[in-house]
Amino acid sequence: MTNLKESWKKVLDILEREVTAVSFDLFIKNLEPIEIRNECLYLCAQSETAKTRCLSLHSTSIKLALNQIFTEVKSFEILSPEEKDIHTANFMVEEEKNIASVSDLVRDGFSPKFNPKYTFETFVVGGSNRIVHAAARSVAENPSSKFNPLFIYGGVGLGKTHLMHAIGNFLYQTKPHLNVLYVTCEKFTNDYISSLSSKDKGISEFREKYRNLDVLMVDDIQFISGKKETQEEFFHTFNDLYQNNRQIIIASDRPPKEIATLSDRLISRFTVGLIQDIQHPDFETKVAILKKKAEQEEYNVEDEVITYLAEHISSNIRELEGCLSKVCFYSNLLGKKFANLSDAKEALKQQVEEEKPSISPEFILEKVCVYYNVSQDDILGKKKNKEIVDPRQVCCYLLTEMLNLPLATIGSFMGGRDYTTIIHARDKISQNLKTNTKLKMEIEDLKSLLKKY
Ligand code: ADP
Ligand code: MG
User: Fold this and answer.
1) Per-residue model confidence as pLDDT tens digits over 166-175
2) 125, 150, 129, 153: which is closest to 426 by C-alpha?
3) Which atom of ligand 1 lies at the shortest distance from residue 158's CA?
4) ∠ at Cα 354 (47, 422), nearest 5°?
5) Beta partners for 248?
6) Does the reported pTM lie above 0.85?
7) For residues 45 and 79, is the Cβ–Cβ distance under 8 A?
8) What Å distances lie between residue 304 and 56, 76, 309, 341, 350, CA to CA?
9) Which residues are bridge partners to 198 per DSSP?
10) Which numbered atom of ligand 1 lies nearest the CA of 220?
11) 317 lines ligand 1 (CB under 6 A)
């Protein structure tokens, strides 16, 4: 490994002299060498854009510099961060299964296009993701029949990408003849832009790629915000696929109407299918996910570690997984066979201490009532006059924003309301916040009031 890093440093020294300072700083300097496999050097770029730039502008310089330093390298490949994850996971599966090459992997039912670790089997279903899981499963089993498009939204690290890859893996195993493409929004945008500047086939090649599909998945679509031309092209891609009864799956960190500058035409296209959110996991789901993860990675942990993590790490599943591996790494360093509670506390001292004691829903309710001068009974009750409905919606909004609680729990706290009512209130306030400055001030007041405690 050290050798690889040292040799790569020498390549960088050569490249620094070869390319412009701006290009070097922006794209080349941050390339990270991953490994040499089958005489190919794998590099990881910081983003899809950096990858495209390196390949389109500096391919030859990189190749020449590599030839000077590495004798054993015949080619190189640049991976985006996402492709790196897939690459690493693929080779881990390959090594676990003791098979020789990616082509054997393909024969064993793993597509090189999807992360083999992200499957329906490894996805733990709980209250926070039950509906979205069922929808994803239904789309995987019967594409283009029920939910088209399927639009999945929710915060970071909650399993959106996992589900898309699970659909891809499932389709690869059950309907390998289908042409399935998964791209990030960034990749779609870059493909579109480079097709515009390409002299030969350009846009026709782009359209051929994106319109000859049975299933198109676009991840992190929120990044299309503000890109008018790309939205226009996406709109036509969407229509073309949809009219030909092809499946479209989209993921985003927020619902369509909250993606700034998303054209109304696109919003209305998304609304035709199913728009489904994915929530923060509740305690039981967190425990189940951690257990599954420990089993998969063959971590030896006491049950008390799992409970401790599920109780104390509230943000998202990616972080939860990170903490679990941190605890195991720590106990391994100590030469222990099993990680126990004290290892967990020690390993996560910073993370857990930094978490502030959380505000309770009762406290939020109390402050909202005082602020708007309404009674708790009214807010929790059924009155429909504006003086009550407005503070009620603000209260729902603050509960979803400031606490990490399932929507159903918030619903029952708010006088036994359905979780869809909470979504409605939250979305309504988020929407109004964009235009209503008085409301914006009130929410800011309340937030700073609540954060004081
Ligand atoms: P997102 O795309 O929503 O940001 P990811 O799909 O990348 O999140 O998920 C983050 C991590 O959490 C991944 O390692 C994924 O496997 C894991 N994860 C998320 N949800 C689940 C789940 N329900 N069961 C098991 N693992 C999960
Ligand atoms: Mg993702």
Assistant:
1) 999 999 999 9
2) 153
3) 3
4) 75
5) 216
6) no
7) yes
8) 52, 46, 9, 6, 19
9) none
10) 2
11) yes
